[in-house]
Structures are given as structure tokens and as C-alpha cells.
Amino acid sequence: MAVAASSSLRISQVGLRGVVGGGLTAAHVLDFASAFGTFLEPGKGVIIGRDPRASGIMIREGVVAALLACGANVIDLGIMPTPVIQHTIRRTDAAGGISIGASHNGAEWNALKFFGRNATYLSTAEANELLDIYHMKKFSFVEWNQLGKLRTEENALDPYLDELAAVFDFSALRQFRVVVDCCSGTSSLILRRMNERFGLGIILINEKMQGVAFAHEPATNRDMVALQLAPLMKPLGADAGFLFDADSDRVAFATEEGTPVSEEMVLPLLADYLLPRGTGKLVITNCSTTALVDEIAARHSGEVVRVAVGRQAAIDALSIYRPEQIALAGEGTGAIMMPQFRFVYDGIAAMLAVLSMMRERNAKLSAILASYPKYSILKGTVPLVTHRIPALLAAMRERHRDGSASVVDGLRVDWPDRWFHVRVSQTEPVVRIICEQRGEAPRELYETLIEQVRSFA
Amino acid sequence: MPRREHLLKIGVAGIRGVVGEFLTPTLACSFAQAFGTYVGGGRVVLGRDTRASGEMLTHAVACGLLAAGCEVVKVGILPTPTIQVYVAATRAQGGIAVTASHNPPEYNALKLFNAQGLFFNTYERAELIDLYHQSDFRRVTNEEMRRVITDYESAPKLHFRRVLAHVDAGRIRARKFRVALDAVNGAGALITPGFLQDTLACELEAIAVDPTQPFPREAEPKRETLGEIAELVQRCHRDIGFAQDPDGDRLAVIDETGFVLDNDDVLALAVDAALRRLPGDVVVNLTTSSVIDDVAAAHGRRVYRTPVGEANVVETMQAVNAVIGGEGSNGGIIFPAVHLCRDSYTGMAFLLDRMAETGEKISTLAARLPKYFRRYGKVAFEHGRLGPLMQSLESRYPQAEKDRADGLKLLLPEGWIHVRASNTEPLLRVAAEAKSEAQVEKLYQGVLELFGQTSSVG
Fold first, then answer.
1. B24 and A139 in contact by Cβ < 8 A?
2. Which of A37, A193, A408, B104 has the most CB atoms around its CB within 10 Å?
């Protein structure tokens, strides 16, 4: 559902996001970045970078001004993928960082993503503190002779690639013919350098970064994979194809047969690869993710921890466990975090993990996927009437008493071979309905759920 | 009454304040967005002086301009007149200089220019400030967003070429003048040494030409703050010394004996040089010395007087198509044939040219000017008391010719008194001038007595 530009602004624990000009203005950027400068530990560096959106130039100027005014030394990486920004925060022991970019949203959007000292997203407690500072508008602007300094950092990519190279055997991946749809985003920066340094021959499409007109919607989902990437697989004789969003934190893929794969499959696939390899036995995901991940986890004596939908819940869940307990964390959107990379959503690392899995199993991507049982998922939305939501959830729970219910986020009810999840969207005034069944699509359940939700609309 | 300092001022002159708690990046960004809205988008030139807060504010201003749909041309650290020349020459929609001119280093400000590289007129400035307060800014989408481009090279070349068109550079170069420079580590530090050494073939001895360092002296170039350069002129046997303010619009001049010339006399020498070359009248502010009237009269030209402030002088200069103008005590020379703004480079070139033309020392040229004695000072007043004070001053000199364009100026046979309220503090600025030391002292002390004070404040 399209959101009117004027009502697009969202300020929440995950930061600031909106359509530039209509909802998101320069004043919001200045205030939010000033709040972040106030929130951070003083005297240390702050890493910033952006995706190629044209409005990123304006937002960057505002972010730099606000951070300098708070006395922070700003290290600007220029146009740079979000995972590299996060890596640089850790490498340089910076106080934190800001990634300017609206990731998988259309070019007209922009956003600020905030990272703390450990280079991950802020915890809920930290995010609440940042929001409080923003709303109070009491910023710690320093005296004129204490202002921060700006410098640019030209080579953030190589140290990042060094870290990937310590985990993945790049030379062994040369055997694969890989095609990537960069969707006019930042992934081309990493992939080109990867080709240069490690002698890979990754073929890039939509490689040129664009500020206004992206090659297509930068969402990592099956439809976008089907658009340009999947049809190229057979003609190019490729072993695998990958699609990244504008800031390279999410990934989707296509098989060597040219089949676009559901974004839901990234997490189960990597759970299958990572669970037997490390000490971690936990897979952290949200209530809307496919039950295939439970089945795969069970094969490897792993366990799935389901939290509320959204980045914030995943970040908070990660802090509950010790890193060595966790195999991976992620969503059905193609956003995956691995402990090897200190829980940063990193589409590039996810791609390398998929390729490494293919090599180690000596199997084609389609064959690996075919080894999994079939699950069918159905998704829908119904416009909401906010004040009736509690009654709706209570009624639905009552009607589906034969399943096991979870109220971590809205209502999720599980039966042995199927489940549904009804929740309120955080970004649009709608109720989201998802249901899934092992085997064929649960058409009848879906219709019933839609009907039940509508009766409260 | 406690003296209230105005640490932030947003008004028709733009925005100015102490950086930190008062002049914030948020304010600078909003003001720039109002400016970008007012000029209707398009290309806007953005430069700054060397103040520590310049970099931060430049980013905030760029953000506001881009948000309003402007294309931003960053020209880096440059003197204000150089930025103004560049705005006009490149057909930009406007320009912003991040500089607080002669104010102390903790201050900064935005100077705003129109498409001709000139200050907006009084009415335009009122419109802009209304727009700022209404917050109804132009806000462009991603698709309409323009870019930032940089051009650090061409502006000084453009500026110097224009200055040289109005002097005989050949004869200046032939003299190989021995010159001293104090650029106060300001914007001039980057380009003034080149102007004097390379362009005008002077033999240069320079101090305070490191733009990364703080101002080594009070930023305003006046006699009390120029001890070091004056000493340098003497010690190194210079023909002349120049001192700039941080944004290179104001100029002070030291003669070969190490004496800091009155800024009014410097302006008078420049006026004389201009009137020798070109037809037209002269515009100065009400506080500028009568020496200007004498010089103009010698050339048969008229002098127009305006309220204090560069923008006021410029507005009248434009209206009467003046050949030269300025503000005496502030050290500002405005020569429209180069550009309609205060320009220390035109000042330097004019004086060197006159020295080359006449073969005279700068002290000799200054000594030929009619001699006046001046006193300047400030007195504090309480809000509400200003009217009665002004009235009592008027009734003390019933015979005086009165000019009420800016405070009160009383023209007397023996000289004049000018009293005006400061725009920034509850202070009266008092100026007096007469033909003799005794006369000026009498006029000046008379004002202080009347205002119930025996000495002026700070």
C-alpha cells in the first residue's frame, strides 16, 4: 500500500525514515543527528556512510554538521554498504556510526540507521534514550573551539574483505559462475573489489550506482529476482544468482535453473549450513518466518527462538544469549546475521555462505533446495481499526484454541503441520495475516482468517 | 543595570551568534533553507573564513540549501569580496559566506548575497527574515535534489583580474615595493601573499598567514591591535604594511614609519585614487570623516551620507551609481568597478598604485590630506532613556544642522557629533570630529557629561 509522502515520516527505535521533502526534512536530520551526537560517548570517532540516493548528499551534510557541533570527529566513508560501515566502527574503535540510506525502500525514501559502539543496532534501552534526547531537543553542542573534525576514509573496503577472507575460502569459490543484480546499489563496490583481489569472476548487472532511478525496486524478494536476474541464469550458465538491496544488508537468490527463490528460503538454507558447523544451536527469527526453519533446526538438534517482527526485537534477543550459543539470526526478508561477523545484517556474507555451502556439499543450489520439504505460505493485509485490535486478537485466539498460541507479537497459533500469524504492521495502518502449511497452500485457513479479521475492520 | 550581551541575533542583517549553545547547526540549516527558498533554488555559492566553526556551519548551510533544491558550489576558504565577485561572475542565484567578519573567534555568522553577489536590499532582507520565521520552506524530493560541486581555484583569479583592471600593475611591479602583511590567519592568509608577491611583484614579509591557526590578535584591524605588524614594518624597513580582518573585506594600513593610519584617511586616499580615474560621486556613512568631503570637493564631486552598515552604503551607491564609497572608521573601501562590496584587495592595489604613480611615501600621501581629529567611544544607556538623552543633546546645540537618518548627527561649524544606538547591545556609539584636538575633546566630553558619564565604557 502506498504511503502519502506527507505522512511518510517515521521516528522510532530503529531510527528515522521517510520520503525526502514530503515527510523527512533537513530539520529532522539535524535534530536526530544532534541527538545521536549527544547520546554518544564523547571524544571518539563516528563513522558515517551513505547509499547512492541523491538525497543522501543533503542528509550527509546535515549529519556531518550536527556531529561536528556535538564535538564528534567524523570519519566519512562516502557511498558505502552498511555492513562495511559497521565493520569500520569496530575496526577503528569508534563511538558509533550512522548509515544514511533507505535500504530496500524506493529511491524517494531515505533514512538514518544508528549503530552503537559494538557496531550493531542500538538496543531498545539505548534507542529509547536516543529518542528521549531527540524529543527533549536538549543537545550537547560544544564550544566553538571544541568542535569535531571531519576526515574521509578512502579504503574501508579492504579491511572488511580481509575479515570475510578469514572466514570464507575465496580461492575455492572461483569454481562458480555467479551473477549478481546490484539494483543500482552499493553492493557493486564490494563485488568489484572482490573480483579484483581474489580473482573471482562475479558477473554484475545493474552495476552502475544511481541516485534517482534504480534499475528496479530495491527489495530482496522473489518478484524482484524474477524480474532480471533469474532469466539470465541459464543463458549465462551461472551456478547461482544473487540480488542485493541498495545498502547490501539483504540478499535474495536464484538457482542455476533460473528459478527465483522465495526470500523466506535464505534463513533455512543458511541454518542448514551453519548449525552443524559451529557451537551455536540457536536460530533467532521472528514469528512470521517459515516453519521450515524449525524442521531444519530439528535435524541438527538446533532450536528456534521466535521474537516479535522487526529489527529491534532481534537485536534485543541477541543480547540475551552468549554469541557462541547462536548459529544465526535473521528474517524472512533476506536479512541474516552471523556470529562470525558479530551480528551485522550482511547480504554479502550471506551470499558467500551460500556459495561455500554449495562447494562443501558439492551440490547444485537447486538440488540443496529440493532436499527440503515443501512449505507453502500465504500472506495478506486488511486495513485496521486500531481500537478493535485487542478484541480481534482475543477472539481469534478463542476460535483457534486447538493450536498452541504465542502472543509475542500479535497472535501466532501453531498446529503440527501449519501455523498462522496475525499482527499489526509497524509501518502501515494494516493487519498482516500470514499462514503456512507443510505441503500445499492452506487456502481454506487463509480465507477463514481473512474473514475473521475483516469482521473486526 | 546588567549589560546584556546578545549571543544570538537573527534579524534583517542575517544570523549571527556565539557558536555552541546559541548559533547551532540547526539554526544555520534552517536559515540556509529559507535563503534557498527565497532565491528559488538554482546554483548557490558557499564559502567561509578560517574560523574553527566554519567547517561545521558550512555543512549545515549546504544541507539547508540542498534541501531547498539548490545546487551548492563550495569554494572553500576565501575572502568575502572574492566570494561575492565569484557569485556575480558565475551567474549563480546567490551566495553565502560563513563568516563573522571582524567579530571575535567564538562568533560566526552568515553573510547572504543575491545573484549579483550583493547584499539584499532592506526590503528583500525583511522578506527573507519573514520567510525564515514562517518556516514555509521549499523542500525538494529525491528526484529534484541537486548536487554539491567544488571550485577552489577560479575565484581568486577572477577577483584579482578585476582589481588589476583599475590600476597600472606594470608600474607597481616595477617598483618592487617592500611590503608587510598581517592576514590575522584569516581567509586572506591563503591568497593575499600570492596577490602581493606574485601578482604585484612586492617583496613580502608576512605574519599570521596560517589558516589552520587561531586569530593571533583581535580580529578587527585597528590601531590598538596592530602592534606586531607596525613593529615589523619598522624593523624590516617596509614601504607599507597591510592588515586584513578574518574575511578580507576590511583593510588597515601602516605607513613606513610604523604608524597605523586612520582608516578614514585610508579611505580618503582610495577615494582620491578612484576619483582621479573615473567620473561619479561618493557615498560614505554618517560616521565617516569630513576628509572625504574635502577630497570629493577637490574633484568637484558630491558626497552622499547613509546610516552605518555596509548594506546601507551599498544600497545608496547602487541608487546613485557612485564611483566609490565606504565606511571610514571600519576600514571598508567599496569600489563598484571591481565589485560593490568592501574589498581590501582593491584598497591595497590603489595605495600601491598611488605610491608608484607619485613616487611618494605613503606617509607623505597621508600627510597631504586635510587634518581632522576624531574621538570614538561607547556609553551604556538604559532602555527607555534614549529619547530624553537625544533630546537633551539636540537642545544643547540648537544651532546645529541635524541629520536623523541613523541616530543623531549634529553638524557644527567646528566639527560634528554622531550618536547612534548599537544594533547588538544597549550601547550608544559616540563619534566626534573637529579641526583641532581641543575642539574634538570639548565636543566628545560634552556628550559624555550630558549622558551622565565621565568616561566611556569598554
1. yes
2. A37
| Burial class of residue A156 in the structure, from the number of CB atoms within 10 Å of its CB (0-12 exposed, 13-18 middle, 19+ buried) | buried
DSSP A6: G
Helix axes A443-454, A389-399, angle to 10 degrees: 140
Q: Which three cell numbers stand for residue A258?
A: 533460473
Chain A residue with Cα closest to B17: A144
Distance CA B196, CA A379 (A): 75
Report the first-to-last Cα separation within chain B, whole angstroms: 15
Domain A375-454 sits in CATH at 3.30.310.50
Instruction: Give the Cβ contact number of residue B148 at 10 Å.
Output: 17
Percent of chain B predicted with pLDDT > 90 = 81
Separation CA A333–CA A262 (nearest Å): 9
Residue closest to A184 by CA, chosen among A78, A59, A311, A54: A54
Length of chain A: 457
Instruction: Give the CA dihedral B45, B49, B53, B59, nearest 10 degrees.
Output: 20
Nearest-CA distance A63 → chain B (Å): 8
pLDDT of residue B2: 43
The model's pLDDT over A310-325, given as tens digits with 9 standing for 90+, comes to 888 999 999 899 989 9
B99 touching chain A per CB within 8 A: no
Contacts of A31 (CB under 8 A, 6+ apart): A66, A134, A137, A139, B26
Q: What is the CATH number of domain A262-373?
A: 3.40.120.10
Q: Above 50 in pLDDT, residue B3?
A: no
C-alpha span between A20 and A37 (Å, rounded): 22
User: Of A348, A372, A358, A391, which is closest to residue A251 (Cα–Cα)?
Assistant: A348
Name the 3-class secondary structure at B312.
Answer: helix
Q: How far is CA B395 from the centre of its chain?
A: 34
Distance separating alpha carbons of residues B151 and A257, to the nearest angstrom: 52
* Nearest chain B residue (CA) to A28: B26
Asked if the domains at B8-152 and B158-367 fall in one CATH topology, the answer is yes
Give the pLDDT confidence score for residue B449 in this predicted structure: 87
CATH 3.30.310.50 fits B373-450, yes or no: yes
- Can you give the pTM of this predicted structure? 0.91
- Yes or no, beta carbons of A65 and B29 under 8 Å apart: yes
Is-catalytic flag, B101? yes
Q: Supply the ipTM of this predicted assembly.
A: 0.89
Domain boundaries A5-158, corresponding CATH code? 3.40.120.10
**Pairing between β-strand B332-335 and β-strand B339-342 as defined by DSSP bridges:** antiparallel
Is the Cβ of A35 closer than 8 Å to some Cβ of chain B? Answer: no
Catalytic residue among B101, B329, B344, B456: B101
* Residue of B33, B55, B59 best to disrupt the A interface, most CBs of A under 10 A: B59
Give A175's contacts (C-beta < 8 A, 6+ positions apart).
A359
The percent of residues above 70 in pLDDT, for chain B, comes to 97
Fold observed for domain B158-367: Alpha-D-Glucose-1,6-Bisphosphate; Chain A, domain 3 (3.40.120)
The CA radius of gyration of chain A, in Å to the nearest whole number, is 22
Torsion of CA A99, A103, A106, A108, to 10 degrees: 0
Class of CATH domain A175-259: alpha beta
The beta strand positions in B91-168, using DSSP E, are 94-98, 107-113, 148-150
Class of domain B8-152: alpha beta
